[in-house]
Amino acid sequence: MSAKPSHLFYQGRERKPVLDQARGVYMWDVDGKRYLDGSSGAMVCNIGHSNENVLEAMRRQMEKSTFGYRLHFETEASEKLASKTAALTPEGLNRVFFVSGGSEAVESAIKLARQYALAVGQGSRWKVISRSPSYHGCTLGALAITGYAPLTKPFEPMMQMMPKVPAPRAYLDGLDPDDIATGHHYAHMLEAQILAEGPESVLAFIVEPVGGASTGALVPPRGYMERVQEICRQYGVLFILDEVMTGAGRTGKFLASEHWNLEPDIMVMSKGFAAGYMPLGGMAAHERLVEPVLDAGGFLHGFTYAGNPLACAAGLAVIDEIERLGLVRNAALMGEKLLTRLRELMDRHAIIGDVRGMGLLTAFEFMSDRATKAPLPKELRAFDRFVQIAYVKGLIVYSRRTRDGVEGDHVLVCPPMIVNETHLDEITEMLDAALAQFTAEIRP
Ligand code: PLP
Question: What 3-state class would DSSP assign to 219?
């Protein structure tokens, strides 16, 4: 732990160990302590740390140029990454706009949607419906469509908060997620909201295909995703998929939308796309949206670092490595094995009330009573305390409160997609020990 006073600040006063180096799935602090990166940072480092081919591609790019302002130059790296992204995203999403992170990508998507509506004479449409809980970013636009009260409340007077519909948490509502009626039940909440708002005022619906930090790897019930897409089409509402966390192989397909053959109007990506090697995000939009905006005078939006050649070179090399090493398939295979291990932990530890996930986006949720699904008392700050216990044992996991941000705690276990079974054993052993210690602390 660093003892020196610091000029840096992030969320709180707590000081963290100082990172020295990272290789593959492991990270070391300056005192030589080793950590297994069981959350890929914040579900970012999908291909593991210090991948030599990515570093080499970055070195090559650095020797050529590290910056070219988008109003002065196009770059080979951004052109190539745009083509690659268009090829990997669903049919028609062939116009790509680069940014430096997920919040910027979400901002870009909602601004493009609004400008499109204006360009085609639908200026009455401005509301972006999202779900609660959800997380779409921390900038004020992205926060207005985020359903997570502790983060949004202080800023609400400064934002135009957008309408929310409940996320489909069948496990809490006692509904069968494999029954298509369950999926349709939640999807129809979107339809009801669109009708209540007045369809002519609704611009878009944005959704994380598999929930991330907000709902803790919530997998939608059968039929839900297909039905919400249909409802959007029916009411002329743009369908935006936030694949910031689920993209780049995390759920066992390159994009989570592939699990349901979805065809969104806009898709946003970040995190795994450059896998932590550089800050990079992007939006892939249907040309049917982009062309009218360009015809009407251009897209009124852009960031200084958009399309940064070094970030794009890193992104291209990351996708090459995902393909070369077969990491999407590995995420699907290892994800199944990880879910089995988490279910075994649930058999041994009564404080786990639910296990869920897809590919290597997996989570468990703490409950004080499985029958009533009651959460652990808020005062225990389980999400904080459990992460700390695991951390001391050398395992990094990611945790959040889950139920609208006021109660309930989940722990995301999302190691890099290069993991093998030995790594999974190591993760399981450390989780087992951390769960035993945590239970002993709260139920002495
Ligand atoms: N969207 C989703 C689904 C996310 O999980 C996140 C970050 O966790 C964001 C958007 C915001 O991304 P960033 O933190 O890169 O701004």
Answer: coil
pTM for this predicted structure = 0.97
Contact criterion met (CB below 8 Å) for 435 and 351:
yes
How does DSSP assign 268-290, residue by residue? EE-GGGTTTSS--EEEEE-HHHH
133 prior amide bond cis, ω within 30: yes
> Which residues are near ligand 1 (CB < 6 Å)?
42, 101-103, 106, 135-137, 208, 212-213, 242, 244-245, 270
Q: Which domains does the chain have, with CATH numbers?
A: 54-324 (3.40.640.10), 326-442 (3.90.1150.10)
228-250, pLDDT tens digit by residue?
999 999 999 999 999 999 999 99
Q: Where are the beta strands (DSSP E) in 208-280?
A: 238-242, 266-269
Could you tell me the distance, in angstroms and rounded to a whole number, from the CA of residue 85 to the centre of ligand 1?
Answer: 19
3-state secondary structure 296-322: CCCCCCCCCCCCCHHHHHHHHHHHHHH
In this prediction, residue 405 has a pLDDT band, given cuts at 50, 70 and 90, of low
Tokens read off for 176: 């069968």
Residue type for position 151: L
Give, for 218, the enclosing helix (H) or strand (E): none
Report DSSP letters for 136-167, one per residue.
--SSHHHHHT---HHHHGGGGGGS----EEE-
